[in-house]
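Explain this fold:

***
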Amino acid sequence: MAICTRNRAGVLREAVRSVLPQLGHDAELLLVDNASTDETAAWAQQCAGTDPRIRFLSHAQPGISQARNRALAEARGSWVLFLDDDATARAGWLDAYRQFFQNPSVARAAAVGGRVYPRYEKPPPAWIGARENLLDRGDQMAPFDDRGAPWGCSMAVARATTLQCGGFNPALGRKGQSLMSAEETELCHRLRRAGHEVWWLPQAEIDHRVAAERLTIACVLRMMFCLGRSAALIRLQMTPDPWRRLAFRVLRLMLTPLHLLFYLVASVAVLLCGRLCPAARLFFRSARATGFAYQLTLRCE
């Protein structure tokens, strides 16, 4: 398994402590430092020096996708399980993945992920719904549908298959100050197109820290804008024909003002009905639509 980290020494300690009791002879822990400028790399190196189950890797090029690809290249196992540095694994998390890997009914699986519970650094504001930052698709293990995917904060991928499909897309995922995302969703699209399956594993549970700075309207707007950019980039890359891509760009850009008007008017109408959380979601969708349109105007794909 691998934890990719950047400038998060404090929370990294919690993440490592949560998985060390679950490691056995069949697993190693890769700590991949992604160009940290604080004491994160030193602590990770020290941790690796005191436990033979831990290996330290340094990757100078910033970007979560690049760091994960480095872990895929260096890992020794047939599966690589990723845990975010600001997440903690619940008891039985690693055993749930072990049992999944040994299940003959999932022979076509190339990716799998489990439940994610938000652990708020401070009480969330009223406009954040109870299911925000929560990933829960029920109690039954089953393949995701064509549009679904696990979250990268707790996700395992078949190493050889993922490398054959090109690994994580470096254009997506957090990188420095960029909040581009959906790198795991895009990877799962490619895995499915190659004939593989993506599975939901409810028994694998983690707690994922939601920092206080993420609980502001400005931050959510920025994240939704970048999510829209990421979605547009994925859509363009999935449309290889240049004329179809051009037609999609033109049509979507023409429709963007209508999308924005709909989301904003609907947000106000829902708010006037006293439904704060749905109104906030509609308002944030306007930022996503704006980011989607912005990405369509860029030449770089």
The domain at 2-214 is CATH 3.90.550.10 (Spore Coat Polysaccharide Biosynthesis Protein SpsA; Chain A). The first strand starts at residue 2 and ends at 5. The chain has two domains: 2-214, 217-296. The two ends are 31 Å apart (CA to CA).
